[in-house]
Amino acid sequence: MFEHNAWANVKLLDFCSRLSDEQLGATAVGTFGTIRGTLMHMIGAEQGYVERVNGRTPPKPLSRDRLPTFEMLSDAAAWTSSQMLELALSAHADTLVEEVSPEEKVEYNLTDLLVQAVGHSTEHRSQIATTITQLGLEPPDLSGWAWMEETGAFRITYLKGRD
């Protein structure tokens, strides 16, 4: 699941890196915002999920003060993908995440946060695909089927008797 999430992020970032500034500024009714803004939000959120759990940030964290380049988004996406996979492989049903501030203490299961992380990214990739479609373009196929085909995990063996 996390490998697919990483693959889908890379495919979408690669596709969007070829869009014009005007296209990156496009939005559609019912979506989060512009393509550019949604990409920044999605990758930034993944960065935030990792930081919530272990306090780590990428070597070059995304900044809210500066518009990231696609290279910066791709670097952050690669880092967060590897970190989230590491978290997923280490998670147990009872692994708790605790966030403490002077005002409150929040606790939740790491597995639930990981569900949130993948669901959040999937939702925003879908919104970006909707906006791309509204621009009259064909968005990349980010389905599990496409991922399995591209990675060689989907194989067909024809049995005898078939022409």
Structure description:
With 163 residues, the protein is mainly α. The protein has one domain (2-151): Four Helix Bundle (Hemerythrin (Met), subunit A) (Up-down Bundle), CATH 1.20.120. Helices cover 57% and strands 6% of the residues. The protein contains six helices and two strands. It has helices at residues 2-16, 21-24, 35-54, 70-90, 110-134, 144-151; strands spanning 96-100, 105-109. A two-stranded antiparallel ribbon has the order 1-2. A hairpin with a 4-residue loop joins strand 1 and strand 2 (105-109). Helix 3 packs antiparallel against helix 5. The relative contact order is 0.18. The mean pLDDT is 91.
Distance between the termini: 36 Å
Placed side by side, the strands forming the largest sheet appear as 1-2
Shape: globular
What's the CATH superfamily, by name? dinb family like domain
Q: What radius of gyration results from the CA coordinates? A: 18 Å
* The CATH C-level class name: Mainly Alpha
| Structure annotation, total helices | 6
Number of strands: 2
CATH architecture: Up-down Bundle
The succession of helices and strands, N to C, reads HHHHEEHH
From the structure above, extract its key features.
163 residues, mainly alpha, Four Helix Bundle (Hemerythrin (Met), subunit A), two-stranded antiparallel sheet, 57% helix
How would you summarize this macromolecular structure in one to three sentences?
By secondary structure, the protein is mainly alpha-helical. The chain has helices spanning 2-16, 21-24, 35-54, 70-90, 110-134, 144-151, and strands at 96-100, 105-109.
